[in-house]
Amino acid sequence: MQEKLSIHGSWTNRWVFILAATGSAVGLGNIWKFPYITGENGGGAFVLVYLLCILLVGVPIMISEVLVGRRGRMSPINSMIETAKESGLSRRWGLVGWLGALAGFMIFSFYSVVAGWVLYYIAAMANGDFVDAGKAQVGATFENLLADPETMLIWHSVFVVLVMAVLVGGVNKGLERASRILMPALFLLLLLLLGYSFTTGHFMEGVTFLFHFSPDELSWEAVLTALGHSFFTLSLGIGAMIAYGAYMPKKASIGGTVLIIAVLDTLVALVAGMAIFPIVFANQLSAEAGPGLMFITLPVAFGQMAGGQVFGFLFFVLVGVAAWTSAISLMEPSIAWVVERFKVHRLIACTGLGLLGWGLGLLSIGSFNVLSDYTLLGMGVFDLLDFATANIMLPLGGLLVSIYVGWWMKRPALENELAIRNPFWFNAWYLAIRFIAPTAVAAIFALNLYNKLA
Ligand code: PFF
Ligand code: NA
Fold this sequence. Notes:
By secondary structure, this protein is mainly α. It has a single domain, classed as Amino acid/polyamine transporter I. The protein is 78% helix and 0% strand. It is globular, with a radius of gyration of 21 Å. The mean pLDDT is 93. The structure holds 4-fluoro-L-phenylalanine and sodium ion (NA). Sodium ion is lined by residues 25-27, 29-30, 233, 265. It holds the Pfam family SNF. Its main location: membrane. Keywords: Membrane, Symport, Transmembrane, Transmembrane helix, Transport.
C-alpha cells in the first residue's frame, strides 16, 4: 500500500524531524522563562517537580500529538477531523485543533514582541552599550525600550518578517533548511556559553542553586507554574507537534523520537540555567530577578566581565535563534490549515496570517506604554495573552488531546501508529495518557483558575 503523505511535504528523515521539533520546543521558554521561574520558586524543589511533569504528563501528551498528526497527515484541525472520522467520531473534535491554532496565534503575537527585545539587545551588545554599565543604567535602557512603542515596533516587525520568510519556503525549503542550519548553531552557542560560565569561578554555586532540594520552599503555586511550563516548553496544547508530526516519515518510531526531543529540551533548559546563574552570582547579583533577569541582570553581569561584550552578544544571538525556530512552529498549524482550506499558495497564507499576528502584536507593544491603562483582571494585553495561553488554553488543549487519544480514538489505530513492540511501554504510555495526564492537568488547571480568579 502506498504510504499516505502530507500535501505540504515530509521531513527528509527522522533526524530532521527531531531537529525541527526540538527547534520548536527550545525557545524563550528554556532560556528566558525557565531560569527566572526557577529563581522565583526557590530552585531545586521546583526543578524536580518540573522534571516529573515533563516525564509523566508532557512526554505522553507529546507522543499523542505526534501520533494524531502522523495519522491525519494534515494541519492540526484537519488531522483531528481525519482521525476522528477513522474512529467513527464526530467532526467536532476539529474544535480542539481550532483552539490550538488560536492559541498559537496569540502566543506568536507576544512572543515576537519579546523576540524583538532580543534583537534590540543583540544590536546593543554589538555596540558595546552595556560595557561597565551599572544596574541603574541597564534598567533604564530596558525601561526606555518598553516606553518606546516605535523602537519595539521596528524590532517586532523585523522578527515577524524573519519568521514568515522561513514559513513561505514550506516544509523542505523553509522549515527543514532553517532547522538544519540554526539548530547546530544553537547547540554550539550554548556550549560556548557554558564554557564561559565555567571560567567565572562560580559554577558550582549555579549548579547548587538549580539542584539543591528544599521541599519546604515548594508551594502550590510553584506546582502550577511547573505544569504550565512543561506544556509551554514542549510546545504542547497548541497543535505544533500535530503539525510537525504530519510531516514525519512513517517508519520512524514516535515514542523514541519524542523522548529524544523532550530530553534535548530539558537539557537546554538546565544548561541555560547552569550558564546563566554562575554569571549572575559572579557579579553579586540576585537570581530572583523575575522577567528582568535576562534583560537587566544578565547585561549588567556581562558588562562587568572580561570578554563580556563578545559573550553577551553571543548569548542574545542564541536567544534570538531559539525564539526564531519556535515562532515558526507557532504559525505552521494555521498556515497549513489556510493552505488546505482555501487552496492558496503558502505565500498568500503567510502574508495574511503574518499581518494578522503582527497586528495583534501591536496591542502587546502598546500594553507597555500607550495602552497601559487598558487592563482586565489587573493585566494588560501582553500579560493577558501570556496568562490566557500558558495557564488556560495550553492545559485545556493538552487535556482535550489526552482525553481524545486516551478515551475516544480506537486502540488498534493507536497501536498501529505507535508500533511499540514491547507491550510494557505501550501500557505505560496508555496509563499515563488515560489517567495520569488528564487527572493532573484537570486538578492543577482548576486550582490555578481558582487561585487567579478568587
Ligand atoms: N516551546 C517554546 C519555548 O519553550 O519557548 C514555546 C512554544 C513554541 C510554545 C511553539 C508552543 C509552540 F507551539
Ligand atoms: Na522549550
